[in-house]
Write a structure and sequence with these properties.
Elements (H helix, E strand, L loop, with lengths): L17 H9 L4 E5 L2 E4 H17 L7 E5 L4 H12 L3 E4 L6 H11 L3 E5 L3 H13 L6 E5 L13 H7 L15 E6 L9 E5 H14 L7 E3 L7 H4 L1 H7 L3 E4 L6 H11 L3 E3 L2 H8 L13 E5 L6 H10 L1 E9 L4 E5 L11 H8 L4 E2 L3 E7 L15 E7 L5 E2 L3 H7 L5 E9 L5 E6 L4 E3 L2 E3 L1 H9 L4 E11 L3 E10 L7 H11 L8 E4 L12 H11 L4 H6 L1
Parallel strand pairs: 1-10, 3-4, 3-5, 5-6, 9-10, 9-11, 11-12, 12-13, 24-25
Antiparallel strand pairs: 1-2, 7-8, 8-18, 13-14, 14-15, 16-17, 17-19, 19-20, 21-22, 23-24
The structure holds adenosine-5'-triphosphate (ATP).
């Protein structure tokens, strides 16, 4: 419109880096990050991030250079989310459960220039570098981050030493364009080889604000880190805690219910997150470890379907569960099951059933639709017609790194195709039925493995469950349940099948039950492809067995 201008006074590229400077002013002496007995204030954190950026820049990190990190949820990992982009570089956080061969593949694919490694993961990193070297690939510069109490280094540069010796007066290299990359996040690899998803400063900024709003974060929240920071930048919570001047409580060692409850009480935690496996771990912990909470704790969950039964128990323990759904490609949760006060009066089981739905887009996402992937027509909002979940908006990835064909395929038709199947209910909320690869087709009927798993989780002896297709000569496929029982609990295959038949249409109930530990990714997802391989190896149910069932 005549008269409007764009200039420095009214336009700056959006970036979550801006939250840090503000936090250092507003919340300067308050705790930004705490690990064990060590606390860093917001001012210290800002100074350490600037020192980190200065050190990395001195080592030659510049615009679009990838800096890889293999570290647990530690202050260094938190700081690198700011210091790397402050140099213009791109942060690539690697999954700490990857083996050396996968780490070497990702280092090579990302062309990381610098590789920061917490010393507890030193052996994996060194093996990965040896693999790169023997393949003749160029090696990134290795920097060690000493794990607490560890002496660390074998002559490599060390993170704390670099911060101490970094030249002062570093000038932040703000993004020239808000669409510049800020991070490179590899997908979980649940269904295939991990893909490198590019996040922009703009997308990260918008998603960070959506995260703060979706999680109902007050100012100065206390956030307990159980979600790995390497996963979608901790669902953008690293930057959201800076926006709100929060305190990040880090945990050393593995996540156990005892430590989680102790940290909640000691630090008066207000917000946390966790995959459904973390929720399941909390509700199934011995009563002696479940401490009364100092107040309601908001916990966001997602990444896999949370069983309604677990949601109901979390409510009883004093947690308000916020259920979100998303992909690495959407910076983490993209939809959430926004809660309505009129649902408060419903019976607990009904509340849990409603909360298990994946909901509606968060405020920064333009839309989520359930579509026929061929015609692109939206399915009716009847709660029954299944289609593919598709998303669009400013918090969808920039693309897959060095894979234009996969990017074009994923966004074909102007929507991000999730590969998930779902329905839309008459009230507009979506509900996932399955990943397209996981749906079971038996006698021409589609069976949602999520629905069968929800029934299994209702059995008092069941701790964990996953359902996959077993090939069948007659039906094509039949549902095969892999079940982990609670400590000391007992149940037989016939009991579990009978329990499901009372709650599900007969064709949906598992025909086979295998008692086993379920293989998980480090982001808490069951690796169903491994279970599918086992079910495939079993072959078809014998004719006799089939008619008995
Ligand atoms: N709330 C949820 N309920 C059910 N499933 C969910 C939920 N949130 C996420 N998911 C599942 O997780 C997927 C996204 O996971 P992520 O981006 O971490 O990588 P991945 O898809 O597991 O790995 P890869 O693409 O490498 O196989 C979604 O497509 C969906 O299948």
């Amino acid at each position: 419109m005549e008269g409007s201008v764009q200039c420095d006074a009214n336009y700056a590229p959006l970036t979550p880096l801006s939250f840090l400077e503000r936090a250092a002013i507003v919340y300067g002496t308050r705790t930004a990050v705490v690990i064990g007995e060590r606390e860093y204030s917001w001012r210290e954190t800002r100074d350490r991030c600037l020192a980190g950026a200065s050190a990395l820049a001195r080592l030659g990190v510049g615009r679009r250079d990838v800096v890889a990190v293999l570290a647990a949820n530690t202050p260094a990992m938190y700081e690198l989310h700011f210091s790397v982009p402050m140099t213009g570089g791109v942060l690539c956080t690697l999954n700490t459960r990857h083996d050396a061969s996968m780490v070497s593949v990702l280092l090579r694919h990302s062309e990381a220039r610098v590789f920061l490694v917490e010393s507890q993961f030193g052996a994996v990193a060194r093996d990965a570098l040896a693999m790169l070297s023997s393949a003749g690939a160029s090696l990134p510069l290795l920097i060690t981050i000493a794990t607490d109490g560890d002496e660390g280094t074998d002559g490599e540069p060390e993170y704390e030493a670099l911060l101490r010796t970094a030249p002062g007066g570093f000038e932040i290299r703000w993004p020239a364009d808000e669409r510049d990359p800020i991070s490179l996040n590899y997908t979980s690899g649940t269904t295939s080889r991990p893909k490198g998803v590019i996040y922009s400063h703009r997308g990260a900024y918008l998603n960070t604000l959506a995260t703060a709003l979706s999680n109902e974060m007050p100012t100065m929240p206390v956030y307990l880190w159980t979600v790995p920071m390497f996963h979608c930048n901790g669902w953008c919570m690293v930057w959201a805690t800076a926006a709100q001047g929060g305190t990040s409580v880090c945990m050393t060692g593995s996540v156990s219910p005892k430590v989680v409850f102790e940290k909640i009480v000691r630090h008066r935690v207000t917000n946390m997150g966790g995959a459904p496996t973390v929720l399941s771990m909390l509700v199934n912990a011995p009563a002696s470890e479940q401490m009364p909470l100092p107040g309601r704790v908001l916990i966001s969950t997602g990444g896999a379907p949370p069983p309604p039964h677990v949601l109901a128990k979390m409510d009883e323990l004093g947690f308000n569960v916020i259920h979100g759904y998303g992909l690495t490609e959407t910076y983490g949760p993209a939809t959430l099951c926004v809660w309505k006060p009129e649902w408060d009066a419903l019976p607990a089981a009904e509340r849990a059933r409603i909360r298990a739905r994946q909901g509606v887009p968060h405020v920064m996402l333009d839309g989520v639709e359930i579509k026929d992937p061929v015609t692109m027509a939206s399915v009716p909002s009847d709660g029954h017609t299944v289609g593919e979940v598709m998303l669009r908006g400013n918090t969808v990835m920039s693309g897959y790194y060095k894979d234009a064909a996969a990017t074009a395929e994923a966004m074909r038709g102007g929507w991000l195709r999730s590969g998930d199947l779902g329905v839309r209910h008459p009230d507009g909320y979506i509900q996932l039925k399955d990943r397209s690869k996981d749906i079971i087709i038996s006698g021409g009927e589609n069976i949602s493995s999520i629905e069968v798993e929800s029934a299994l989780f209702g059995h008092p002896a069941v701790l964990d469950a996953a359902v996959v297709a077993r090939p069948d000569d007659h039906w094509g496929e039949t549902p095969c349940a892999f079940v982990t029982l609670k400590d000391g609990a007992k149940a037989t295959e016939a009991e579990i099948v009978g329990f499901c038949r009372e709650r599900l249409p007969r064709y949906m109930a598992p025909r086979t039950v295998v008692f086993a530990e379920l293989p998980k990714t480090s982001t808490g997802k069951t690796q169903k492809y491994l279970l599918r391989e086992k079910a495939r190896a079993m072959g078809s149910l014998p004719k006799q067995g089939r008619s008995k069932l």
